């Protein structure tokens, strides 16, 4: 085998660039990267090929294209270029793309825990110093998200500074983001060097099992990494302060499990965990413990506040769904610890929930608002996504279990109304919820929300389906109510496309537009028709500021946080030029602005299904972008619906 000393540093750099690119690179490009001339590159490649020929690998040269590395035996090449296992691991993870360099730089600086010169970073990443200077802008922004700063000292370089807790959360965020395995991988073991991750994994699993602390596989993997980070930092005498962990809530089984695992890890790693570090590990256990029961009422009270707000804004009533309430309360107990201590939590299902289950996600965002107000602390989208998953479960059962909201109309006073209410509750308690009673005059004058009406008097031009009964509910009256319930359950399927989409709310725009212009254009269409108030646009923008409504495949569905809407409608805008919709730079050409009347969200289920298909099927989105008129747009929606 060729000797590593035969590869001078410049040759190693040249090979590294070719290996990362794995495509043709011109001599001029390589010369600029290595700060030599093209003639030197040709000479270097000739010398390298003399060594490579013995190993079956080579650098090929093609006129007009440049040079390309061709590997027949990649493992031999890696051993030649980086003989140690740790060097080979670093070689395989050093990024070639700009967006991948930022996490790498953050990990590198956290590991050094001292000032690092930009020249050193440039050499480590095989890029120019000017490139590193440009990357530092994004590095600072990402560190600020973790409440850390990037300090700079002339002659010394840059260094990450902040609290030890935030340092560790940042470390785990940018280490676990690359983890695809729920078990300890060879790469992770190499990354942590002498720290025995696999034995730590066994200790953690045994300790959790002994004290019956249940955690998801993802949470266990997260805990292993945090323990490894703690060990490395403790060995460098970098400790979490006890005052950073004040207010932690835990139970005795969680404490005993952590005490057990720390005792074993101390023996394994020949290390001493101070009390603050034990509390730090306890934080990770109690914030991800999947509880089976709860012994307090704070979380239940919080859930009921969330449900009350959802009922007020959307008309959905989950208050009788006891199993759902219990599950959400159990979720909140560890979640509150995560939120209080600004812990990183990644929700791998978030994009799917936002794209395919927008109503459940809206409920999750509303629940987040309630929790934010109660805890007086910012809560990220990932937590909202996890709460949305609980609402998705409730919504899946809700249509079959929800009572019909019924309004009583009585012309002969409160006594008659109460008598009728008692009889209806006695006969239809599991099917009907009486939401109120009123006179015929009040019913005709005021806006009322109900599934249908039971009236003791005839109603001309009723705004709802209704049945007329006597206050004493005869058998004929009961059959009339039963028929109305049956009709409501099996009523002919209405066409949501013709109901919610209208030509007057449809537009195709040529030329460049901004997101602000599109939102204003669509909101103005609603306002001109008298369907919404002037505050509608402001609420839409507020919703966008909370979470941009980009769903994927060039489609966005903006809507207000709350609004007084006269009639549920969807305004459509198709732009011939893409619009930048969010900070991530996602481009949009199909905009569906939703104006939903209170308590009518459930009627949009078919529309949500169509939106999901547009997001999932690129060909469908392409067809919509290319339509020339409203009729062509509707034909596509009708086709998707069927």
UniProtKB/TrEMBL annotation:
InterPro entries, sorted: BglG_antiterminators (IPR050661), HTH_11 (IPR013196), Mga_HTH (IPR007737), PRD (IPR011608), PRD_sf (IPR036634), PTrfase/Anion_transptr (IPR016152), PTS_EIIA_type-2_dom (IPR002178), PTS_EIIB-like_sf (IPR036095)
Domain PRD as annotated: residue spans: 191-293, 294-401
Gene Ontology BP annotations: phosphoenolpyruvate-dependent sugar phosphotransferase system; regulation of DNA-templated transcription
SUPFAM superfamilies: Phoshotransferase/anion transport protein, PTS system IIB component-like, PTS-regulatory domain, PRD, Winged helix' DNA-binding domain
Domain of life: Bacteria
Entry annotated with the keyword Cell membrane: no
PTS EIIB type-2 domain mapped to chain residues: 404-493
Residue ranges of domain PTS EIIA type-2 in the record: 499-640
GO molecular function, one term: protein-N(PI)-phosphohistidine-sugar phosphotransferase activity
Keywords associated with the record: Activator, Repeat, Transcription, Transcription regulation, Transferase
Name this protein carries in UniProt: Transcriptional antiterminator
Source species: Listeria fleischmannii 1991
Organism taxonomic ancestry: Bacteria, Bacillati, Bacillota, Bacilli, Bacillales
